[in-house]
Write a structure and sequence with these properties.
alpha+beta; 53% strand; 96 residues; 4-stranded antiparallel β-sheet
Length: 96
């Protein structure tokens, strides 16, 4: 698993932010900051799929969103190397 983070900036105020982050996340944590407002943003956040988030506000809003989460993105060679190394360590542990 790999922890990934993506920062999105919405300069023009909009009621709906459609954020395409392309991180292939298993879970998504979204933090939203409104420009010019000292309190946390109130929004409805909908994970459309592993690569897309939609943030909906009651009024047009400008600000930033930070999306983070875990991804399974390991290239196949790294995954095989990891699995082989884990297996080798287990065998060596039992061989003592």
């Amino acid at each position: 698993m790999i922890q990934k983070v993506y920062k999105y900036t919405q300069i023009a105020p909009l009621t709906v932010w459609h954020i395409q982050h392309n991180m292939n996340l298993l879970n998504q944590v979204v933090s939203v900051l409104q420009y010019g407002v000292p309190t946390p943003a109130i929004a409805i956040i909908h994970a459309i799929d592993k690569n897309t988030v939609q943030v909906t506000f009651q009024t047009p809003t400008a600000g930033e969103a930070v999306i983070s989460g875990l991804s399974e993105d390991l290239d196949i060679e790294k995954r095989e190397d990891f699995e082989f190394d884990w297996y080798r360590k287990r065998i060596n542990h039992y061989d003592g």
